[in-house]
Design goal:
Layout (H helix, E strand, L loop, with lengths): L4 E6 L8 E5 L13 H5 L9 H10 L6 E5 L9 H10 L4 E5 L4 H9 L5 E5 L6 H8 L7 H13 L3 E8 L6 H10 L6 E5 L19 H14 L3 E4 L1
Parallel strand pairs: 2-3, 3-4, 4-5, 5-6, 6-7, 7-8
Antiparallel strand pairs: 1-2
Helix pairs in contact: 4-6, 7-8
């Protein structure tokens, strides 16, 4: 198991919980606005953190940590993800997995084997090949059906979940968001968040794009909330 990053205590990665965050390398996407550039493109240049060291920290601090988030990159690309989840559950921690939805078989396994308590799926665009290719930075033809399957899995299974979208000028319009909402309108939570421009992105041009204004984000929020009442806006 290659672990390329670890946050010992986060107040923002799992709503209502103090969580530790584990970062796994590599991703099937190359989203131009992604700010985990090194983790996605050059994980071999990053030091590997020993899993035993993380487990030791968690065991020693279990009374302060409410849960563990596994993110990336794309964690479902790791065949060892079920073992990592199992080890965390053995220590008594609830587990959250962040995913882009491209590996429905892995998500289904984690749910069926009770290895995950919460799944967050990053929904990047309306689920068409052209639109998803634009936001993911790759030819999404082979991924769209997989993402649709993961969406169905989350909506049909009794697992706590959220869908979330990072809204990016030049990529998202309110009508796009409304179509996305129709796809996931029965979800438990939908979180909207604004694009960050003050970080290094996979496509350098996106570092010069100004994020949506407060008023524009509020307009997105109200549009989503009309379809999905349990929409939240993350500041």
């Amino acid at each position: 198991m290659e672990i390329k990053g670890f946050i010992d205590a986060s107040f923002s990665d799992w709503d209502g919980k103090v969580s530790s965050v584990i970062f796994l390398p590599m991703c099937s996407f190359r989203c131009p606005f992604c700010y985990n550039k090194s983790l996605v493109l050059h994980p071999e240049a990053m030091p590997t953190i020993a899993c035993d060291r993380i487990m030791k920290y968690l065991e020693e601090n279990r009374k302060w940590i409410d849960g563990v988030v596994i993110t990336g990159g794309e964690p479902t690309n790791s065949k060892d993800l079920p073992n990592l989840c199992s080890d965390l559950k053995t220590l008594g921690f609830p587990v959250k997995v962040d995913t882009n939805g491209t590996n429905p078989a892995m998500i289904n396994k984690l749910i069926k084997d009770h290895l995950v308590n919460y799944v967050a799926l990053d929904l990047k665009a309306p689920l068409t090949q052209i639109e998803y290719s634009k936001t993911s930075g790759v030819n999404a033809a082979r991924f769209v059906d997989h993402i649709k399957e993961t969406v169905r899995t989350l909506l049909e299974n009794n697992v706590d979940h959220e869908f979330r979208t990072t809204l990016v000028p030049t990529l998202h319009r309110i009508e796009d968001l409304e179509r996305m909402c129709q796809t996931i309108k029965d979800c438990r939570k939908y979180a909207l968040q604004n694009f960050k421009s003050d970080v290094e992105t996979i496509d350098p041009e996106f570092q010069n794009i100004k994020p949506f204004s407060t008023d524009e984000m509020e307009a997105f929020f109200q549009a989503a909330k009309r379809i999905i009442p349990n929409t939240i806006l993350r500041r």
